[in-house]
């Protein structure tokens, strides 16, 4: 029977897991490192009771998070019940075979349609995953929302929207058209996303521009996996006639900003950003970072690192655009039927 002067790190970790917090959570890193140092001293600190002073020393760097969990003050308090409901939904949806894989890029057409994964990360960093959640996939058009948020945060929303609008187009995502002001309708269709790409640090070399965005993605993901699929990039570039036609149309209408490095270079960067890879787990953290900016303070910080990633106004703007324009020509129906 343990005395009141001893405590178990193993039991604490088990309790934290029951609230959705992982051992790998960066906010618990110092605690885990301290525990490892005690393991080196005493064989295995997980499997015995630590004296009060050593236990306090171990948990002190993560005390705020631990206290929040033990007081049941995390955003989803009944975590086990919540995960049970999500698992039921996941298993029910696993039998849905409607739809088809994308065919407009040959490399995407080769993807296995039976892969099925789900990940959730809350704004407090509670996490759960099911199925093929660790398999990498290309972000494709998901990149448009994050690229807009990054550029808007870097250059300011007013400047960005002097080149691209913020209204739903009501047309196909790759339609060759502009709004009544001679600009792409919004940043979440191909025309607007290409213009947004041309605004990304266009005074730098192409390699540095790519690295800038990649590093911003990693910040949004709290250091989780973000990679690059070169085969998809090459495949997309080889079948890019529509995007080239759209870009030449925008060039004719003087849509591109000064300093644009040429259509081929800008489209290459656009295709490269579409070919960035994440997993369900990574994407869940990135989504939680944006969702964190949807609170009353609009502080767009990564829930795993507490690092400020996106300017508050830019976070607010991208969430608004995702609601109004994020599902292309299905945005209105989606908002009407789902977002209630």
TrEMBL record:
InterPro entries: Beta-lactam/transpept-like, Glutaminase, Glutaminase_EF-hand
Keyword terms of this UniProt record: ANK repeat, Hydrolase, Repeat
TM helices/strands, residue ranges: none
Organism whose genome encodes this protein: Angiostrongylus costaricensis (Nematode worm)
This enzyme's EC code(s): 3.5.1.2
Name by which UniProt lists this protein: glutaminase
GO MF terms held by the record: glutaminase activity
Annotated family: Belongs to the glutaminase family.
Catalytic activity, reaction form: L-glutamine + H2O = L-glutamate + NH4(+)
Taxonomic path: Eukaryota, Metazoa, Ecdysozoa, Nematoda, Chromadorea
GO annotation terms (biological process): glutamate biosynthetic process; L-glutamine catabolic process
Keyword Cell membrane among UniProt keywords: no
Domain Glutaminase EF-hand: 3-77
Subunit (UniProt): Homotetramer.
Enzyme class: hydrolase
